[in-house]
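User: What would this chain look like folded?
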Amino acid sequence: MLMPRRPVPALSVPTLTHGGYLLTSETPQNFTLVVFYRGLHCPICLKYLLELARLQPEFDKRGVQVVAISSDTRERAEALADKLRAPDLRIGYGLPLAMAREWGLYISTSRGQTSIGIEEPALFSEPGVFVVRPDGTLYYGAVQTMPFARPHFDELLAAIDFALAKDYPARGEYAGAV
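Assistant: Here's the prediction, encoded as structure tokens.
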């Protein structure tokens, strides 16, 4: 299990138009926002990433670097990017499922074609949203077993504003006996 205030696992994937992505090479002013999405087959992911792309300038203003990553192939990631039409959003692909597990993401098996007629991959990771400090430690994390009820990016922006204004620490860090 990932723990707040402790280092997150390694994260390295190719991106469509921004070169290789290596989390340890990020140099954000305040945070890195890592959004793991299910893939091309997920209509909820498309809607979610459209909202992320719309709000990306707001994250930029707050010194938050953004990346969206899936286990999709390059071809499937390109098809999603064509639908998004958000060239500034870094889209990572080819996330190894073993790496997804290290991040605490759930892995699902294919159920065939989705409601939009796109075949699910044999295996793929479910969504997760993480906010990582510049020192590589976890500040915030949310994972889901389903594509529904994800954190809202406008609420996350408000939380980042609060955290920065109040120097609010990452919570959930206690790992001792209970």
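The CA atoms of residues 10 and 23 lie 7 Å apart. If you want, I can go into more detail on any region.
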